[in-house]
Structure formats: structure tokens, C-alpha cells
Amino acid sequence: MISIWSVESHAPVAVGSDRLPGGRFDAIIIGAGITGLVTGVILAREGCSVALVEARRVAALASGGNTGKATVLHGARLSTIRRAHSANVTRAYVEANLDGQRWIADFAREHQVPFAVEPAVSYAQDAWGLRRIDAEFAAAREAGLPVERVEALPVPFPFAGGVSLAGQLALDPVVLADALAEEFARLGGTLITGVRARGVRAGRPATVSTDHGPIRGDAVVVATAAPMLRRGLYFAKTRHSRSYLAAFRVPEAPPVAGLFLSVDAPTRSIRTTPDVATGGPPLLLVGGGGHPVGRVASTRVEAQRIVAWTNEYFDAASPVAAWSAQDYESLNLVPFVGRMPRGRRRIWIATGYAKWGLTNGAAAGLRISAEILGESWREHRPWVRVLGTRTTAPSDLARGIVENAAVGRELVSGWADALGRAAPTARPAEGEGVVVHRGGVPYGVSTVGGRTTAVCAVCPHTGGVVRWNDAESSWDCPLHGSRFEASGRLIEGPATRDLRAGSRRDVADR
After folding, report:
1. Is the peptide bond before 12 cis (omega within 30 degrees of 0)?
2. Which of 74, 164, 190, 375 has most Cβ atoms within 10 angstroms of its Cβ?
3. Reported pTM
4. Taking 60 as the threshold, does the pLDDT of residue 286 lie above it?
5. Domains of the chain listed by start with CATH number
6. Kind and range of the H or E run holding 28
7. Is the pLDDT score of 380 beyond 80?
């Protein structure tokens, strides 16, 4: 599954070197998504020596697979935060995203990154969802956003009413990420791709261990979607979600421009984007179907529901690309950004964007770079102080209890299911995978591209049994969202190691 941005982007995907440099850096950034790239560009502009380490390529995961909406109206997010936190915290969240959005817009104008300015619309699909619309409108107004209530729009999909915020941005996130990477390199930054960071030691200097050797620096920024360090236990303070997108050609462009997101189920995200490949009418992008990683019977069915819904409301829509992306939500609803506990004030993290990584990621880059540079932003940007000193609410603890109870259930059920089927197993059909056990150890057996492979099915992070993702031919851990290729190679964390290889004995000769 490859995103339309990677397929049809004008700009080539930026590539760095896999050779580790010597010496000591002012800062080392792990992860070449929006957060890492923005942080790197700001630090490099100030003359810092910066190394940016990426396990795959620039914008390989969440940053290159999102909807390309750099908006401040986030579905029903503001009312959700407001129910759990004060008006001051909700306003600070909005101000942080406004700063992030402004930074992206300024950078895009300066570096000729194309973008459109459109209204963002949070909408209800039926009358039952209008209560959430009313709550979002009230929370947005209280936070200072000039939102408007919309009673009706001439759109082909169900629309019972909504909240609209003008002046939001729509762009190609891969073009943006490539421009950031090119600017980072032009400023003297060291971009290292194809090298996975495995850990960080908070010494003086701090040391990042990688599969190619160590890198040393005065500060380290962990800008991966899920922090790959156990410090702070952020894997237990966030919940993971995987959702689906598809791009469609339609006989006529959808009648209303806008960045739509439903506040009720089934969640649907809708926007258009230029058809770069043909130069024809805009493509329609439709997304949704979010679910915890590894906790649905068939991811292929979830992806197909997006196509079926689009065909129901857009005549003759023809899919040209389909893909999926993953993100993490902070269990206290506001992203975790700042210094990592027990990091000796040398390690920073950013996680928990709840699928709004463009503006939240840029805001995180602004905050972290300022703290590394020693700038006093608490005076000039009050949101830094408010978000950095917020207290944990009882509802935050309740969400944590619920999520970690679900993790416990998945741990038990995963092992129980695995021990219910002994190896060897028949060769799975193409694109399928099954978990069996040999000697009480779970093994995953799959067939992809005509090749049948067996791997140990125990996630190296916290021991969960992985499950087969039939839409993307991957092994996904239902505990904390780590994902692995059919071969066992790690795709994304918080795990830092591959799945161990299995044995040919796990597959029957039939």
C-alpha cells in the first residue's frame, strides 16, 4: 500500500547517507518526519551542528501517509480536550497549533511548496452527531477561533450540520518533507537514512546507539511517532490507532472545496488534491476506519469499507491508490512534548498527536528547538508554559486504566490463541498469515510474493503475540503498536529489534 503522495509527488523523496559521521554534534534527532525535520531546520538555521537519523527514508511513515491537512480545527478534538481540561489548556493547544500552522505556511511560501487555503469543516453525518458539533463550536469559540456554524452544504455525502474554520492549509506532506530535508542539508545538517537508532544513553555527551555504530551529541530529540525508549513509559501513556486512506478519480470534481472530517461514526475524512500524474480534475481523498493496531479481524475489510462508502456517495469513483497510516494519542489528550524523564535534561520527546501531526509536529519542533537553544519562550509563547505544567486529570487516569486493561487482555488472548494451534501448519495462501506454536513458543507463518516465511511471533518490546495484517502483509503487535514485515524486519516501534527468524519445521510439506 503506497500513498498517493509517494506515487505522484513532483519532488523526489530526499535521501541521505547511511555512513555515520564522526565527531560530536550539538543535537541528534531521531526520526525524519515533520517534527524531526522542523526541529532540525530551526537548529541548523541557528548555526547548530545537527545529525538527523532515520531508519528508512524521509517521511516514510506517518508524516508521508497523512491526509495533508494542516488545520487547527481537528474534528471533535477541542471539545474532547475541553471536557477533560480547563479552558486555559484548550486555548494553549489551539495556540500551539496556530504557531505550527504559521510556521508551515511561512516555510511553504519561502520554498515554493504548493498549498491550498480552504475551510476546515467538522461535520455530523446525522442528527445524533449535532450535539458534538454544538460542543465543538462552543469549545472552539471559547479558545478564540473564529468558527462558524454551518447548517447545510450541497455535498453528496450525509451532512446534518457542521462547524467551519476558514483559512486552513491543504498540501502534499511528502513535498513539504522533501523541501524541509533539502533545506536542512543546505544549512549544513547531516541527514542519515537507512540507519536505525536502537537506544540512547544520557551521558555527557549523550550517545545514540544505532545498527551502524554510536553517534554522540549534547542533546537528543526522539521524534519518532512512538518513543523508542522506555524512559517515562510513554508506550503505556498513549494509545495507538491505524486508519485508512484512498485516492479516487471521479468523473467530475466534488462540488464543494473543503477539508471535511466527521465527528460521528463511521469517521470519514474528505478532501481533494491536484492530480499531479495526469493534470486532470482533482483527486478525491477519503479516509477513516481507525482502530487500535492489531485488534481487528481483517484490516483488508477495514480498507475495503472506505472504497465501498466512496462508491456509495460518489458516482463512478475509481480508486487509484490506497494506504494506511498510524499515530498515537496521548491518554491525557494533549501531546507529550518536552524533556524526557531521567534524561539528565539532554533528551527530548514528542508524541501523542492523535493524527494531527502536521501542526502539532511543527509546534513541537518550535518548542523543542527553543529549549535546546536556551530561548525563553515561556514569556513570548504562553502555550509552552501552560502545556508544560498542566496537571493530570482524573479522566486521564481513567483512560490509562482502560487502555492498559485492554493491553492486558490482548496479551493473554494472544498467547492463548497461539497455544491453541500447534506447528506445523499448511502453507498459508498468498497474502495470508497464521500464528502457531512449537514447544510453547508462538511462531508466525506467512506467504508473501510466493515466499513462505516463519518468524517468532513474540514482539520484542513487551512480549505480545503479533497478529497478521492482511491489508499490508505485516505482523502487528496489539499491545503497543509495533509492526514488522513478513520477514520479521521492524517497520515501526516502540520496539527496536526485529522478530527472530523461525524454522522450516513450522510449515507442513503440503
Report:
1. no
2. 74
3. 0.95
4. yes
5. 16-60+174-226+334-394 (3.50.50.60), 65-173+238-330 (3.30.9.10), 416-506 (2.102.10.10)
6. strand 24-30
7. no
